[in-house]
Design brief:
This protein is α+β, with helices and mostly antiparallel strands and about 290 residues long. The protein folds into 2 domains: about 5-155, Butyryl-CoA Dehydrogenase, subunit A, domain 3 (Up-down Bundle), CATH 1.20.140; about 165-290, Nuclear Transport Factor 2, Chain: A (Roll). About 55% of the residues lie in helices and about 15% in strands. A 7-stranded mixed beta sheet has the order 2-1-6-5-4-3-7. Strand 3 (about 240-245) and strand 4 form a beta hairpin. The longest helix is centred in the first third of the chain and has 22 residues, at about 5-25.
């Protein structure tokens, strides 16, 4: 491996992680997309790349688009092709929308078709020109602009916005951590959405397996359902502290003040719909974490 190339990639990792997270809405999926981007960089002719940062953004976006499309059925894919063009919102509205990034917006992004979501995220949140977005979504620049415009209108006009009260989200996370420390299974169930999902990255799964001989429970990469999630987490977050993870209330295990494990929560209303456990050192280091 070229050490200089590796250093350049690591310098770009925080931005790539941020782009992938906002496109995919999942830290663990974003980690997979960034890792795939590194694999593609290693197998490419790096010396022929004039703008490495732009190349990496393009590749991670294409990887994310493929991952999004794998979630959708053919009917949903067709929805994005035939809607009439919509005018762009004004710059003030765009700025306000960009500033509201958080769990509410991530939930709404799930309602968009893959190409709409990618065009919206790259342009509105990362200022990528439509000329650069167009080849990623296999459209003309004008069509890419329409995708972002359509996505913006849907997000702004949605009546399905979940609670964005950060203080309330923090209270839900605090209550969940307290119940987990006490092993209060009933309290955990009441705080979880019936269809809650728990995801853990590879490092967290391997770490749990390594500690299983000391009584620590095993951890699956994905667990679904409130009961299964509560069973997986009861007694696990005994020393985690409430923190802002990329501006959203979550939790972190930070011995000596250094974040080692991140627990990202998605709270809708008064219940937790999704929890992600991230332990990969490179990913954790790239995440903005503020212990509260």
């Amino acid at each position: 491996m070229d050490k200089d190339l590796g250093a350049q990639f690591e310098a770009s990792r925080p931005r790539l992680q941020s782009v992938a997270y906002r496109i995919l809405g999942s830290l663990t999926a974003a980690e997979d997309a960034v890792q795939e981007t590194w694999i593609r960089l290693n197998s490419s002719d790096a010396e022929s790349i004039d703008n490495l940062a732009g190349w990496l953004t393009t590749v991670v976006s294409r990887v994310c688009l493929g991952m999004l499309r794998s979630r959708r059925n053919d009917h949903e894919e067709l929805l994005e092709l035939d809607e009439p063009a919509l005018e762009l919102a004004g710059p003030e509205a765009e700025a306000v929308l960009t500033d509201t990034i958080g769990p509410a917006l991530l939930v709404l992004l799930e309602t968009l078709a893959p190409s709409e979501r990618l065009a919206f995220v790259l342009h509105d949140m990362f200022a990528v020109p439509f000329e650069d977005i167009a080849p990623i979504v296999a459209r003309s620049p004008a069509a890419a602009r329409q995708l972002a415009s359509r996505a913006r209108r849907r997000v702004q006009g949605s009546d399905e916005v979940p609670s964005t009260d950060r203080r309330r989200q923090q209270e839900v996370v605090e209550a969940f951590l307290a119940a987990s420390r006490l092993g209060n299974f009933e309290a955990l169930i009441t705080l979880l959405d019936p269809d809650a999902v728990l995801r853990a990255d590879r490092a967290a799964v391997l770490g749990a397996a390594a500690n299983s001989d000391r009584g620590a429970p095993l951890l699956a990469p994905q667990v679904r359902g409130a009961t299964a999630v509560a069973m997986a987490l009861a007694g696990r977050a005994t020393t985690a502290k409430v923190a802002l993870i990329d501006g959203t209330p979550g939790a972190v295990w930070a011995p000596g003040g250094r974040p080692r494990v991140v627990f990202a929560f998605r709270v809708i209303g008064n219940r937790i719909s999704e929890i992600e456990i991230v332990m990969d050192p490179a990913v954790v280091a790239a995440l903005p974490v503020q212990v509260l």
